[in-house]
Amino acid sequence: MPFADVDPIVLAVVAATLVVGAAVQGLVGLGLGLVAAPVTMLLEPALMPDLLLWLAMLYPLVTLAREHDDIDWRGLAWSVAARVPGTAVGVYLLTVFSNRTLGIAVALMVLVSVATTAKSMVVPVNRSSLVTAGFASGVTGTATSIGGPPLAILYQHRSAEQIRSTLGVYFVVGAALSLVGLAIGGGLEQSTFVLAMALTPFLLVGLAITRVLRGLVPRERVRVAVLVVCTASALVLLVRSLL
Q1: How many CA atoms lie within 13 A of 104 on its CB side?
Q2: Angstrom distance (rounded) from CA 179 to CA 193
Q3: Which member of 89, 171, 194, 236 has the lowest number of beta carbons within 10 Å of its beta carbon?
Q4: Is the pLDDT of residue 112 over 90?
Q5: Does the N-terminal peptide bond of residue 49 adopt cis geometry, omega within 30 degrees of 0?
Q6: ∠ CA 149-201-239 to the nearest 5 degrees?
Q7: DSSP string, 108-175
Q8: Residue 191 CB neighbours (<10 A)
Q9: What are residue 186's phi and psi, to 5 degrees?
Q10: Could you give the angle at the alpha carbon of 137 between the alpha carbons of 54 and 125, nearest 5°?
């Protein structure tokens, strides 16, 4: 959709949600899609999912300039490799199932995962779990633009710095793979990239707010925040899909 065809009020609302989403993601490692995707889908569905995928790829590039020492490169190797076939499946599902069906399935999957790990159960971060999370994230990220929860749940017991930096690299590569998949499938528009670039400054505003939030949220509370964001993401997606 051309930039000029988007209602200015819609742009203002989307920009505001990007500020909030960027602030949340800068704190716990994910959240941009949670906040912005449902609003964008309701106001201008023609922009989804590629607008949020472009922004999901651009935002971590800024945050990684400050946080890159704690990246789990080994974990990323397995999860990113598994995202490739997951992306292909996500593109295929977009042509077979309705957005409603996909949204409900993804939301229920995330809620079950959170319920399983919220108390004492710790999912080991190993080759099998990384491949599973990467594949699931590829499917859900491509089909709904919300692909962070599978990997975030897996890393919830790691340090806040490693959660943010590892997810940051994953989002850059993962979003790029999803965009390539959409382009091959004929579902990517160049004008959406132009709009994403125009909205990027609002991500920087959210990042600035993050620096204030980190001083208010204790490090030991980041795991709880990750689970809360994942749960909220699933509930928003479920309600959006049911309505």
Answers
A1: 7
A2: 10
A3: 194
A4: no
A5: yes
A6: 35
A7: HHHHHHHHHHSSS-----SHHHHHHHHHHHHHHHHHHS---HHHHHHTTTS-HHHHHHHHHHHHHHHH
A8: 16
A9: 80, 20
A10: 125
- Assessment of whether the complete model's pTM goes beyond 0.90: no
Q: Residue 78 is encoded by which pair of tokens?
A: 């397995």
- Structure tokens given for 115: 């319920």
Structure tokens at 50: 């590629």
Residues 179-234 have pLDDT tens digits of: 998 898 887 888 899 999 999 999 999 999 988 887 777 766 777 888 888 788 78
DSSP 44-75: -GGGTTHHHHHHHHHHHHHHTTT--TT--HHH
Report the residue count for the chain: 243
Distance CA 97, CA 142 (A): 13
Structure tokens, 229 = 């964001």
Q: Which amino acid is at 167?
A: L
**Contact predicate 64/164, CB 8 Å:** no
The confidence score (pLDDT) of residue 4 equals 62
